């Protein structure tokens, strides 16, 4: 299985030599002789059949192959270090769970609930990283992710968490400055705030209201929901937002829901993770908790 994998000593020697661009400095760091470093590099190159270093005007430089290889070697060494520290810290029980999450969903829905999880499972640390664009489980150090869309993600397992009710809202001050909004057609006099990742949201909403003569794509565009929320709060325009993300603003009267009904889209929030991690105990523990929290949200 590991026929083509060099020894850890050889890889550490190569990484140190590449970082310092010096066999002498690498030897000092590794507490070995300079000749031992040279021998390790020579043996590694012979084993791989590829030159990793060359001398240019008495200076040590990486070959193109060496420069590419050292990047991957560093990633591997970092993963080994992280795995070892994780094992020592948690003694094989619990550990760290790296979760990719949409920024606004994470800050406004997940994080306020994480205290309940950590109190029940103090042996598990959930490390959150934010993602807006698509991510790759194979190239990123991520155990699982919460994303919005459909369940079609090849090579993964998806658990549906919840849908969302979209409602148009604005600041009360906007209604005073620009005028009331009694029907969807009145939105023609207002600025529609846009989310880049959902370019057809207003189009679908207006179509459902059988409202024409309004350009659904016109208006300033924002990367994240929390930006649109702040824009709506300051009176920049009308926002189409998931109701569960703005409960506090609605209850305090900072935002006004413009119509009584809401629109439920066909997409939803999912917990998604690679098939090869389905047996990870800390992931399954978090999964069971998250599904319970999501079910509680859906009943509200």
From TrEMBL:
Keywords per UniProt: DNA-binding, Transcription, Transcription regulation
Organism superkingdom: Bacteria
Pfam families on file: HTH_1 (PF00126), LysR_substrate (PF03466)
Gene3D superfamilies referenced in this protein's UniProt entry, alphabetically: Periplasmic binding protein-like II, Winged helix-like DNA-binding domain superfamily/Winged helix DNA-binding domain
Gene Ontology process terms (BP): DNA-templated transcription
Boundaries of every HTH lysR-type domain copy: 6-63
GO molecular function terms noted in the UniProt entry: DNA-binding transcription factor activity; sequence-specific DNA binding
Keyword DNA-binding annotated: yes
Family, per entry: Belongs to the LysR transcriptional regulatory family.
Name of this protein: LysR family transcriptional regulator
Organism: Kiloniella litopenaei
